[in-house]
Amino acid sequence: MYYTFAMRKIFLSFTLVFLSLLSFGQRPSTDKKLESKIKQLIQGFRGDVGIYVHHLKKNKEVNIQADSIFPTASIVKIPILVGIFDKIERGELQLDQQLIYRSNQKYGGSGLMQFFQDSTEVDLKTLIGLMLSYSDNVTSIWNQKLAGGGGAINKLMTDLRLVHTLVKNSQTEGRKSDWERYGWGQTTPKEMADLVTLIREGKVVSAKSSDQMYRLMGNMFYDGRGLSQIPATVKTASKTGSLDDVRNEVILVNAPKGDYVFSIFTKNNADKSWGNTNEAEVLTRKLSKLLWDYYQ
């Protein structure tokens, strides 16, 4: 009797451990009601759209073309951020280290550093802040080099099992043809949402580095799209990306009733205008409001 009881006890213990592991790694189920609402919302959009939503507490998701590849535009700056913090973790870079800006680094497009005077002294944390908050192109290229280049960043993404998330600009070796097709980088809506979630959960580089990255991603200057529909008192981490026919955004919301993350990526957009009335930007605001109202 003792042997039988002991064996049953051991079996029960292993069963409980096995079930807990299954629960921990359980795939999200589809929120059919929300999926229907989002499909109605995107009807008639003049372009290609991919949307991924994941309520982390409920472990429910919506995936609408979220495994399709899209140009990242400036959202590529999140993988670059990871590359910088990998170097910091290794002791090869420091947030307070001083660097010198040279006028020959000037690069057009968004950002502020292109207007700095030659020989301006700046620290690494400022480079990161400008890259994220103001989507600064000069500091983004600089940070990519400091991180070891596109190849090093791409390896980090592969290690995180984000196999479609790649830096592909002209400065990344062997990526010229991809650069001509996707621009600075490529990803999927799901992979980018997953990357932000991994940072939120302390699973990128290290818990300490993830915490610092998450703080930096909470200071967005460009807040007129999805962020505009979320109360200012609620913590968020986000990034936008834009090209003439591309509008993207990823946001993780620390909402009162549980964290949720969503990403919306668009390409081949008929509306190539710049401004708040752009069709894709209007859609992004509507999606963000829908999600906030639905979850709260």
Automatic annotation (TrEMBL):
One Gene Ontology MF term: beta-lactamase activity
EC numbers: 3.5.2.6
Its catalytic activity?
Answer: a beta-lactam + H2O = a substituted beta-amino acid
Listed A to Z, the keywords are: Hydrolase
Q: Does the keyword DNA-binding apply?
A: no
The protein's matches in Gene3D superfamilies, at most eight in alphabetical order, are given as:
DD-peptidase/beta-lactamase superfamily (3.40.710.10)
Q: What class of enzyme is it?
A: hydrolase
- What this protein is called in its record is Beta-lactamase class A
Which taxonomic lineage is given here?
Bacteria, Pseudomonadati, Bacteroidota, Sphingobacteriia, Sphingobacteriales
